[in-house]
Amino acid sequence: GCNAVLDYIGDAIGTEAEREKVQAEALALRAYYYFWLVNLYGEPYNYNKKALGVPLKLTADMETNGKARSTVEEVYTRINTDLDSAMMLLTEGRIHISHFNLNVAQGIKAEVLLTMGKYKEAAKMAHEARQGFGLMPQELFAAGFNSVNNPEWMWGMQIKVDQSTIYASYFSNTDPCSIGYNELGNEKRINSQLYDAMNDSDVRKSVCVGADGATLECDNGEFEVPPYTVNKFRLPSYANWSGDYCYMRAAEMYLIEAEGLARSDQSKEAAKVLYELVSARDPKYKLPDVTGNALVEEVMLQRRLELLGEGFRFMDMKRLNLSLDRTDKGHEETFLKPAKVDAGDIRWQFLIPTQEMTSNPNMVQND
């Protein structure tokens, strides 16, 4: 779809500025898609950039045979080329929060630079991306993460009532009161050690249930939930399932900036950025008085607490080539098969879908 826009944008009716805006959005969106594809199907950039990534298809024409897989490095080169081109064309204004503007493109660029280990550049880009977006007040943090009117949201999708997808929706899987998949015994839970790492004054703790479980008082009734259930994502109305989706918010940019600074030996600056974010969630949080690896670890802890349930942990572990070890970490072992996956294990790369394997003779399957 992005390729079709880019192929035919010259034939579109409108002003040059309008065409450039559409072209920029298509470039940024293609870069975003390739960023996710290469991270799901390829090896981590910092640890094997010469490994196979995904095919780089850059035109909309139909092909008899599909393209072969480009390397991880080649895919990242294209991602950065598309983002740089998009940022040259984009302005700060936009029609709707679901559209791209310069901030969103800069935010994606910051994510990409962080994943590539270009920490100083990632910090600078994240700082630029969050300009004009403040941190939400505590009461809004606990309001359900369901509205594009949240001033911290940089990019999101406003879900119309007739497009809510009901049981297939995000909130069906995350809201314990939705009478969806979550409520049917699939509650999403926080690691008990993460829960214990938060002060009682931290609003992020208030959207998680403690060790004894709880009865949640919701608009559509009372719901008994097990220990450590996450109650962060809730529908604004259980009559129409039309909660909005958040794709990017300013807090992530604060965390990228803090991590980038901490990993590039700018501890004092990193601590200030981290404090600005976390003190907005917990008034008792103190300015970190550590440097080096200890500060990096504090940033990563706060990243897990802040972005809980928003889709970052897998990508973080993969980009840093970390081992997954959930043994004796507050999880129910019956659900953990396996409980431990070492860094470099083949399971960090998703298998190429069957449809792609059968339709593309040039495709090579992951191990």
Structure report:
Helix 4 (72-89) packs antiparallel against helix 5 and helix 5 (102-115) runs antiparallel to helix 6. This protein has a two-stranded antiparallel ribbon with strand order 1-4. It has a two-stranded antiparallel ribbon with strand order 2-3. A hairpin with a 2-residue loop joins strand 2 (214-218) and strand 3. The chain is built from 15 helices and 6 strands. The protein has 367 residues and is mainly alpha-helical. The chain is globular, with a radius of gyration of 21 Å.
Record field, number of beta strands = 6
Percent range of helical residues: 40-55%
- Beta-strand content bin: 5-15%
H-E string: HHHHHHHEHHHEEEHHHHEEH
Alpha plus pi helix count: 15
Fill in the keyword field for this structure.
367 residues; mainly alpha; two-stranded antiparallel ribbon; globular
In short:
This protein is mainly alpha-helical. Helix content is 42%, strand content 7%.
List the helices and strands and how they pair.
Elements: H1 2-8, H2 16-41, H3 45-48, H4 72-89, H5 102-115, H6 119-129, H7 138-141, E1 153-157, H8 170-174, H9 192-196, H10 203-206, E2 214-218, E3 221-225, E4 245-249, H11 250-263, H12 267-281, H13 292-306, H14 313-319, E5 324-325, E6 340-341, H15 354-359
Antiparallel strand pairs: 1-4, 2-3, 5-6
